[in-house]
Amino acid sequence: MIQQWFVLYRKEMLEMMRNYKWVWVPLVFILFGASQPITTYYMSDILSASGGLPEGTIIQIPMPTGAEMMAQTLSQFSTIGVLVLVLAFMGAVSAERLSGAIYMVLMKPVPHHTYVTAKWAAMATLTGVSLLTGMMAAWYYTELLIGDVTAAALLQSFLLYGLWLAFILTVTLLLSILLKSSGSIAFLSVGIIFLLSIMTSILTRWMKWSPAALTEHATEVLIHGSAGSQLALCLSATVLLIGILLVLSVYSLRLKQTSL
């Protein structure tokens, strides 16, 4: 059973390499991670060089601290990064159903939970590496141009934010099993994440358990050195929801097997 799981895991990793996801997904995170501190540091020079300002105009933009700069980078990942992950994983199962590749796997026979968890683990590996490389690029240029950020705070924020991204890819995986259209999967995934984030921001008092609150905890770790008193509740709820979504994914795949 374990050997079969690792075979499927390696298959998924190889498939993502063949599709160049191991190239362009980390590259996007590195690009946006590095661009945030560089753009912020040179913003005054960029505005001055752009022209159109009265002669003698002096542009003074308050420079954020290193911790604030890393928090801004996470905010950048919450928009572009999330979209990139959804686009990368929206066809995780639906594309195999359309191509018929899933027939070859499930007729081995391969248990549904083995198939789903191996695919999820491969997706989580790519996500974790992409986030890590993006944050390391941001950290390097933040340290070089703006200010210090402790390695401990960086590691804690990485783990917290990485769990939020794990929740996102789990939602995308479930929708990829339920739906066939990549466009519908992407639209619903982004819509669910956006709605959850908005509700968490507006209904702060009642949404302290929300996985979207992990982004706030990751930011607080960077800026204040502490994630806050509600972290345990948020972590527990997120891990539980990820488990429930994976169970639903396995159950949904089993129900759809007759139509594969």
Concise description?
The chain is mainly α and 260 residues long. The chain has helices at 2-18, 21-41, 43-50, 66-89, 94-99, 101-106, 112-145, 151-178, 182-202, 213-224, 231-256.
Verbal overview:
This protein is mainly α and 260 residues long. The protein is built from eleven helices and no strands. The protein has helices at residues 2-18, 21-41, 43-50, 66-89, 94-99, 101-106, 112-145, 151-178, 182-202, 213-224, 231-256. α4 runs antiparallel to α10. The longest helix is centred in the middle third of the chain and has 34 residues, at 112-145.
Low-confidence spans: pLDDT under 50, at least 5 residues? Answer: none
Which class best fits the helix and strand makeup? mainly alpha
Largest sheet: none
Order of helices and strands: HHHHHHHHHHH
Topology diagram in text:
Layout: H1 2-18, H2 21-41, H3 43-50, H4 66-89, H5 94-99, H6 101-106, H7 112-145, H8 151-178, H9 182-202, H10 213-224, H11 231-256
Helix pairs in contact: 1-7, 2-4, 2-7, 4-7, 4-8, 4-9, 4-10, 7-8, 7-11, 8-9, 8-10, 8-11
